[in-house]
Amino acid sequence: MDKLDILAVGAHPDDVEIGMGGTLAKYAFYGYKTGIVNLTKAELSSNGTVEERQNEAVDAANVLGVSKRIQLNFPDRHLLDNRSACIQELVTIIRKYRPRIVFAPDKEDRHPDHGHCTELVKEAIFSAGIKNYFPESNPEAFRPDSLLYFQINGVMKPQIVIDITDYIDKKMEALACFKSQFQLGDNQVKTPLNTGYLDQLKGRERLMGNEVGVEFGEAFRSDKPVLIQKVLGE
């Protein structure tokens, strides 16, 4: 497996697709290698079975041109109870695929699992760069260049907006793969996700785009300043 340029980590299947599906589609189009890691199988979700959700996640990844999808098996809503094991799994993945940029959910998200996911990813990135930490995973330490946070729920005040105008349809197509989550069918529980969520999400991405003068954008934050070598394009 080639090294990955981008590695996006979510607590549940569909987290990454909601937050940055357009960005993944865009960079895959330009030939960059992208990957998704899901920490849990979202077995506590109100709708859909684990098997359905896994099949949907595979279909969505294919739509976005994702090079590698990794499904871990930590228990839903108990990520911090498995802190050490989860960090070690993430360290192994980071050292193996050596991504240039890692993405994780915004820390202020209302869902506790999303914030816990980010806490674990942040610690794993630090630990992956320590030579003597968990050397049996891979003896060669590695630390990505950047960690950026994407939004799932709510609307953040972004530091970075990526233009996804040409890829919004791909993003929505990928999210439509998650029928168990975003379509209200017979014998399903009504949730915020299946009562107009996708329309609201597209409106949010339009709002983010408007902030920087494009039609659709995805928003990101960082703990530290982001270096831009050239303000103007070639």
From TrEMBL:
One Pfam family, short name: PIG-L
Organism: Evansella tamaricis
Annotated gene: bshB1
Listed transmembrane segments: none
Protein name per the record: Bacillithiol biosynthesis deacetylase BshB1
